[in-house]
Design brief:
There is one protein chain. The chain has helices spanning 68-71, 74-79, 90-113, 138-145, 229-242, 256-269, 283-294, 303-312, 319-327, 345-353, 372-377, 408-414, 432-446; strands at 7-11, 23-27, 30-34, 60-62, 85-88, 148-150, 157-158, 163-169, 177-183, 186-190, 213-217, 246-250, 278-281, 314-315, 332-336, 360-363, 382-385, 388-391, 395-398, 424-428, 458-461. The protein is α/β, with parallel strands linked by helices. Strands 6-5-4-3-2-1-21 form a seven-stranded mixed β-sheet. A six-stranded mixed β-sheet has the order 7-8-9-10-11-20, with helices on one face. The protein has a six-stranded parallel β-sheet with strand order 14-13-15-12-16-19, sandwiched between helices.
Length: 464
């Protein structure tokens, strides 16, 4: 046995928590980073800590999908001398560029709002120096996108003679995949985020057939999605409309906004909800919609229906249009980013509407601990938006089942085609209760043991 045969995984994020996905895989002397995400919510302060591994020693990054908690730390990686390739599917890289640029613009805008009128010096970017927050600029994002390298689905790509990988469809969002890695005689699988079996827009995820070592998400490892989501959404919209107020739906710009647009359009034309005007106010969501148009094989939405939907729902382009919608007091539905109410234009709407009892805030996705969305979901009577406190007088409703994450039955089913017993299973990307629950359910159904790694824990696995 030599060091060239060793396998080591260090869990640099999404261990004991949902966000910040980063898994450093060392195969022999080769370092591969699986995802490179930002911590969000109550873990956001962890973004300011120094990266525990020298980015210059990482040979490449494999992204499972484009969400910020899987890609948002990439600008820090390149700033600190990472020079390797960043691999993923074409739509993932297209969406990642949109998300990273949008995130950078929000960070720059927040600096202005806090009185930092001047451009942040390059030396201070991505360090805990300006406004006490991790930050980057669109300039930093450009350095990231220069390293992007798209690969096709189900196609093996060789990193070395002994190391290869391929992406397989996992639903969740357009472009999302789980990644299989072959190292000599070992087969490693990183699930990324696993999608739904019956998604409104996306196809069911593929399933791995072999996994000697498996790193698996557990976001909804302790719960089941309801089967009547469509009916409950229609009923919630109809009930809220009776109050004659504005219905605000905070939404993730990738896939969730497009799903909500599709569902609301379908409900309107079928008469299942009142004929209220619907606005989609998310510049990033609008850009992602164009990616839907150009990547038809990744989703189920026919081009002609997409066109009809876009002609029915008003897409807001400028901040001036945002204020026009806000000043219009007629009943309406507004889909606006961000999904966890942490930034973006949804905050502007809430500043004007959260204290109005006729308003309904409809939460339609996972809300991480420490976010405004989670506070609203848990019944907070007051929230702080852009340094100002607001009394929550609006009704707050949660529609479960619109999440792009598999529930525990779907997670267990995703394992059903694996031949034999994996040597190691590591459960990540979940709150502690959800991860522990999935561990128990895997043991009960398959008899397989799993490990719940701690943040920054490094585990060495010897090849037999």
């Amino acid at each position: 046995m030599t060091s060239q045969d060793d396998i080591q995984i260090q869990f640099l994020g999404a261990a004991g928590r949902v966000t910040g996905s980063k898994h450093l895989l060392t195969l022999g002397s080769h370092n591969i980073l699986i995802d490179c995400g930002l911590f969000q919510g109550e873990d956001e302060k962890l973004n300011n800590k120094p990266f525990v591994v020298d980015p210059a020693t990482i040979h490449c990054v494999l992204l499972t999908h484009a969400h910020l908690d899987h890609t948002g730390y990439l600008p820090a990686l390149t700033k600190h001398h990472f020079k390797g390739r960043i691999y993923s599917t074409a739509p993932t890289l297209q969406i990642a560029e949109i998300i990273l640029n949008d995130s950078a613009k929000i960070m720059e805008e927040e600096l202005k709002q806090h009185g930092h009128k001047k451009r942040v010096p390059a030396k201070k970017r991505l360090d805990n120096t300006a406004n006490g927050h991790f930050q980057y600029t669109t300039e930093d994002v450009s350095a990231v996108t220069e390293l992007f390298s798209a690969v096709a689905l189900d196609q093996w790509t060789f990193i070395t003679d002994d190391i290869s990988f391929r992406y397989r469809y996992s639903g969740h969002i357009v472009g999302a995949c789980f990644v299989e890695i072959r190292f000599k005689d070992k087969w490693l699988v990183f699930s990324g985020d696993i999608g739904r079996q019956s998604d409104f827009l996306l196809y069911p995820p593929q399933k791995p057939e072999r996994a000697d070592i498996l790193v698996m998400e557990s976001t909804y490892g302790d719960r089941l999605h309801p089967e009547d989501t469509y009916q409950r959404l229609a009923a919630c919209i109809s009930h809220a409309a009776i109050k004659g107020g504005t219905i605000i739906i905070p939404s993730f710009a990738v896939e969730r906004s497009q799903m909500l647009m599709y569902l609301l359009w379908h409900m309107k034309i079928s008469g299942e909800i009142p004929d209220l005007p619907v606005y989609m106010d998310s510049p990033m969501g609008k850009n992602v919609l164009e990616i839907f148009h150009h990547n038809a094989k990744w989703h189920k939405l026919p081009p002609e229906e997409c066109t009809k939907m876009c002609n029915t729902i008003k897409r807001i382009k400028t901040i001036n249009e945002t204020f026009t919608v806000i000043n219009n007091k007629e009943p309406k539905i507004v889909i606006a980013g961000s999904g966890m109410v942490t930034g973006g234009r949804v905050l502007t709407y809430l500043q004007f509407y959260i204290e109005n009892p006729s308003t309904t805030v409809l939460l339609a996705g996972y809300q991480a601990l420490g976010t405004n969305g989670r506070l609203l979901q848990d019944g907070a009577k007051e929230i702080i938006i852009r340094d100002t406190s607001y009394i929550v007088k609006a009704s707050v409703e949660t529609i479960d089942g619109l999440s792009g994450h598999a529930d525990y039955n779907e997670l267990l089913d995703w394992l059903s085609c694996i031949e034999g017993k994996p040597e190691n299973i590591f459960i990540v990307h979940g709150e502690p209760r959800a991860s522990a629950s999935l561990k128990d359910k895997i043991k009960e159904k398959y008899g397989w043991d799993s490990t719940l790694p701690a943040l920054n824990e490094s585990i060495r696995l010897l090849r037999e």
